[in-house]
């Protein structure tokens, strides 16, 4: 019987969903949302805070500041509450309202930046705001977009866990946000001599891999400014997924009883398309990372009015009429 005294001590590492009977593609989905932060971001948050503590940048009573679209902000809110730090999360209007409420419930201060950057997103505007506060003094910025502890958390934890569970792994699909999870896993398999094809899954409209900037409404994957962590030499292929496919996929999963978040929908949609194009009729050992669960998306990708406002006509294309979006 597990007994813990800190929320950071609990994280389910070895839960996979076999998607073959669920959606059809030969794919195992590694579920990263079963911890008190509800997402894979808890790993990076713990690693970055620990590194800052070792370096002497974080002392008792310090104030952490970070730019986040939601999940990392929740993870840092939990750490700050458990270790006695203050935390300021700088986000934007696309952050799920539920994530904002969770952060505030945990004692964090949430500041919403509403001015878009030059690429139509908010990332550069958020970072500019963070830099200004850091320069004014009194804040410790972990900088998830350039912090090596971000990818090291997955090099030392996530990737070895997958390697142990699937010693014959052929293909690994990882979503690209800050690219911390992606780069940690890609570096691990390359540097350990494992013949694994690592495929990055990004959102259409993201500039991470040189794409044309476009409007993006689903928080999580994709950026409007290329992260400093990304190194394409470790990546074998990239799939760009339209947000319509993301939404169709999460609703298809929900119709089977699996309520996952938007980032997971993007990864699964990209993985299914890549497998159909590159491994048609084959049965490779393929794993995809599911970064989060779906409860925090109930006000967005699972809500009818939000869908009709942002993706006109998509509601009528969802796999099960009335499931999850339409009222009685």
Shape: globular
Sketch the topology as an H/E string, one letter per element. Answer: EEHEHEHEHEHEHEEHHEH
Helix proportion of residues, in percent?
25-40%
Structural class, from secondary structure content? alpha/beta
Q: State which percent range the strand residues make up.
A: 5-15%
The averaged pLDDT comes out at 92
Distinct helical segment count: 9
Rg from Cα: 19 Å
Amino-to-carboxy terminus distance: 42 Å
Instruction: Please give the number of β-strands.
Output: 10
Sheet of most strands: 6 strands, mixed
- Strands of the widest sheet, in order across it, are 1-2-10-7-8-9
- Which residues form runs of ≥5 with pLDDT under 50? 321-328
Question: Could you please describe the fold and organization of this structure?
Answer:
By secondary structure, the chain is α/β, with parallel strands linked by helices. Helix content is 35%, strand content 14%. It contains nine helices and ten strands. Helix 1 packs across helix 2 (71-83). The longest helix has 18 residues, at 148-165.
Spell out the blueprint of helices and strands:
Elements: E1 16-18, E2 28-31, H1 41-54, E3 63-67, H2 71-83, E4 86-91, H3 97-105, E5 109-112, H4 123-136, E6 140-141, H5 148-165, E7 171-175, H6 180-191, E8 197-203, E9 237-241, H7 243-254, H8 262-278, E10 286-290, H9 304-310
Parallel strand pairs: 2-10, 3-4, 3-6, 4-5, 7-8, 7-10, 8-9
Antiparallel strand pairs: 1-2
